[in-house]
């Protein structure tokens, strides 16, 4: 991504080890003014360590951190213009809500009148003004999280770090808070760096998502871009679900590549859409919602479609959809399909034996770096 | 059937624990010079106790030493626990923290002999101050234990990090967040230290200098001339004092956790 002005935050080649274990293996990324960037990945992938290095709680073994062009790699946390919303809120139990939010402002020796205005406007932002006199122990989880947010925002930092802030809330509250967070971020124009392992959360809120895996950034891009064009098997599988198919490029004919999928199905794909340089063994991702399962009556695929033969293994009821699992013939991994309730109903109970997984050729996504996982 | 035996066992167990104390308690009201035969009820030994200048002097000495020792042990204990929990050494954390418990493990009589030869060796005259220092050393494991547990739970809640994130340097974060939240544990440790010092006999016996007579030493010397119920009366007062301190230490520790 190219920024018209210099990025607000710039990480350059961060490396970090804890007791001989390399946690970060060269993290570089930039965050623009007013951008909502999510660091997404499974636990232990290095996303929280990256956040702690940005906050100043950890020091990188190698690499630099720049904030508004200034090198802050060695600056202690209390002199960084960055505030954090902690996963478990970290509210001061001996202060009431007002004093919690005022904590940072009082350290700056602002006068009490000004502090009062700032605290109340921050509490208004999270709609908690009426609770200013309560102690943290008297608040619900959702309220504590809002106070933590108000406290971090009170100093109007240009950059806010959020470390799985919604992790401890129940699903319904989490959905509400997701929208509210996004709304507040837009309204204030502050940059957010948001850490989560919840891909749906990342998709809902972010301008860009950095997918972390084992101390590296696997892919960085807009949510839609990452979802539709995953570059690695890890990203394809972590963002939503994906069937990873192995394939072999047989030959190149004009504008088309001849490929063989799973050692059985041969087809031709157009070279556009990033298939240009593909050769040898490759991996393809296929979204479950792009797969339709139907009974195998020996029918030939329609034009532009492919079939993989197998047997119906299991169906899982998911309310508004059905997950249909097909055991493909001669393949270790199952093929998963996600079908709407109606589509599943029309499939009927007739599929008890031989079945077909049907999908469009254009829905196959070529993974660019299949061996990056190692 | 089973529960009957269990109740009996429990009753016997408590009798075993508390019989000596209750005997001491009842005989403090015994209207006789000896602690053997009950000759009727009286408060007179409490009166004798209150008029015993030697004993009251020893009580005052003990109180002064206990206050001093508990202050010293609290400050040193806070510093040591903070260092161990919040600024741990890169290597050998377990080594450092377990060696701080040494006074608990070494028999007190060994400590007494050791302290005596130490003070004599470095040429420091034995007096009130050396005894207070020795008591502080005895009490340190207790103050450290109390404060360290609290600091550990505070560290897990990232409060000091949150304070620093909002612009507090190490010192401000300590003063505004850690210290107020650790205060109940510090006070509870100090109360424990006070009772340790106040009750100590063995160490005091070895290194109390000339003219420094603490309460336990005074009682011991009185015993040589036979046990009168005055000592029982004194023991009852001490028991009450210790009980109050221990209960308040416990209450404070509970409130610190909440």
Strand tally of chain B: 0
CATH superfamily placement of the domain at 58-214 and 236-257 in chain B? MetI-like
Distance between the termini of chain A: 27 Å
Q: What is the domain total for the residues of chain A?
A: 2
Would you identify the regions of chain A where 5 or more consecutive residues have pLDDT less than 50?
Answer: none
| Overall pLDDT metric of chain B | 88
Overall average residue pLDDT of chain A = 88
The H-level CATH homologous superfamily of the largest domain in chain A, spelled out, is P-loop containing nucleotide triphosphate hydrolases
Which series of helices and strands of chain B comes N to C?
HHHHHHHHHHHH
Lay out the secondary structure.
The complex is a heterodimer of chains A (374) and B (258).
Chain A: E1 9-18, E2 21-31, E3 36-40, H1 47-55, E4 62-67, E5 70-71, E6 82-85, H2 97-107, H3 112-125, H4 141-154, E7 159-163, H5 171-188, E8 191-196, H6 199-205, E9 208-213, E10 216-221, H7 223-228, H8 233-238, E11 243-253, E12 256-261, E13 265-270, E14 280-286, E15 292-295, E16 305-317, E17 321-328, E18 335-340, H9 341-347, E19 354-360, E20 365-366
Parallel strand pairs in A: 3-8, 3-9, 6-7, 7-8
Antiparallel strand pairs in A: 1-2, 1-4, 4-5, 9-10, 11-12, 11-14, 12-13, 14-20, 15-19, 16-17, 16-19, 17-18
Chain B: H1 2-27, H2 44-51, H3 53-86, H4 93-99, H5 102-105, H6 108-121, H7 128-156, H8 159-165, H9 170-199, H10 202-207, H11 215-223, H12 229-257
Helix pairs in contact in B: 2-12, 3-7, 3-9, 3-11, 7-9, 8-9, 9-12
Describe the structure.
Chain A has 374 residues and is of the alpha+beta class. In chain A, a hairpin with a 2-residue loop joins strand 4 (62-67) and strand 5. Chain A has a 6-stranded mixed sheet with strand order 6-7-8-3-9-10, with helices on both faces. A 5-stranded antiparallel sheet of chain A has the order 13-12-11-14-20. Helix content of chain A is 25%, strand content 35%. The radius of gyration of chain A is 25 Å and the shape is elongated. Chain A has 2 domains: 9-237, P-loop containing nucleotide triphosphate hydrolases (Rossmann fold, 3-Layer(aba) Sandwich), CATH 3.40.50; 238-373, OB fold (Dihydrolipoamide Acetyltransferase, E2P), CATH 2.40.50.100. The model of chain A has no long low-confidence stretch (mean pLDDT 88). Chain A contains 9 helices and 20 strands. In chain A, helix 2 (97-107) packs across helix 3, helix 2 packs parallel to helix 4 and helix 3 (112-125) crosses helix 4 (141-154). Chain B has 258 residues and is mainly alpha-helical. Chain B has a domain at 58-214 and 236-257: MetI-like fold (Orthogonal Bundle). Chain B is globular, with a radius of gyration of 22 Å. In chain B, 37% of the residues are buried. The model of chain B has no long low-confidence stretch (mean pLDDT 88). Classes of the chains: A alpha+beta (374), B mainly alpha (258). Chain A binds chain B through residues 55-57, 76-79, 82-84, 86, 88, 90-94, 103-104, 107-108, 151-152, 155, and chain B through 157-159, 161-169, 172-173, 176-177, 180-181.
